[in-house]
Specification:
Oligomer: single chain
Helix content: over 70%
Shape: elongated
Radius of gyration: 25 Å
InterPro entries: DUF3106
Pfam family, one: DUF3106
Keywords: Signal
Distance between the termini: 67 Å
Strand content: under 5%
């Protein structure tokens, strides 16, 4: 087989694979499971006109929803309702924060998750006290450095400013 024929054959194989991938990525309405069709029934009349990426995203979301426990579904509904109540500016800010988090190295992401678990474990009164301290620190940034300069304070949640969050505690 000549070099040109080999290249043509390789291109045909690649194009065939792309066609198969595209077909898998954007299911037709008839290819959805019964449960997926039930969950997405509002999209049925316009399903085939939706962009392929949108159809794939909806199909994956329906599959994920089907795999959730009732408790997970309740949490997802609550989060979605909260999301819907946010202003476009708040949503944009949260998306930007998510993107920044994803840029962090894995170990820093893990530290952030650990700190969040610690935060959530605090009693509401303690969280309120810490929130108030941060409001006070915004008004007087030097107070933050004074209050958190000691070694004992470096592990406290209310002493984790940008300069401390990236450094391991001693």
């Amino acid at each position: 087989m000549s070099r040109m024929a080999t290249i043509r054959m390789a291109l045909i194989v690649v194009m065939a694979m792309l066609c198969v991938t595209a077909a898998q990525a954007a299911p037709r309405w008839s290819e959805l499971s019964g449960e997926q069709r039930q969950l997405l029934k509002g999209f049925e009349p316009k399903w085939e006109q939706l962009p392929e990426q949108r159809r794939e995203k909806l199909a994956r979301g329906a599959a994920r929803w089907s795999a959730m426990t009732p408790e997970q579904r309740d949490r997802a509904r609550t989060r979605f309702q909260r999301w819907q109540k946010l202003s476009p500016e708040q949503r944009d800010r949260l998306r930007a924060q998510r993107d920044e988090f994803r840029k962090l190295p894995a170990e820093q992401q893990q530290r952030v998750r650990e700190r969040l678990r610690e935060w959530r474990a605090l009693p509401p009164v303690e969280r309120s006290r810490i929130r108030q301290r941060f409001r006070d620190y915004r008004a007087d940034p030097e107070a933050f450095e004074r209050d958190c300069a000691s070694k004992n304070a470096q592990r406290r949640l209310d002493c984790l400013g940008p300069s401390r969050a990236a450094k391991p505690s001693r």
